[in-house]
Amino acid sequence: MSVVTEEVTFAELEATDVISVELVPERKGLILKHCEYYVSSRRHGTTVSRRYNDFVQLYDILYAKYPYRAICRLPPKRVVVGGGSSNFLLRRRAALQRWLTLVARHPVLAHDADLRVFLCESTLRLEKPKHDEFILAGTQEDNLSEVTTQELQAAFESEQEPLQLAQLALARLTQIFEKVQERCEAERSDMRELGAAMSGLGAAAGSGADPQLAAAAQYVSAAGARDCVCVSRGLHGERAAAAAAPAAPRALHLRHRYALRAALQEGRVARAYVCAARGSLGGLAGRRAAAHAARAQLWTDLARTLAL
Question: One GO molecular function term (predicted)?
Answer without folding.
Answer: phosphatidylinositol binding
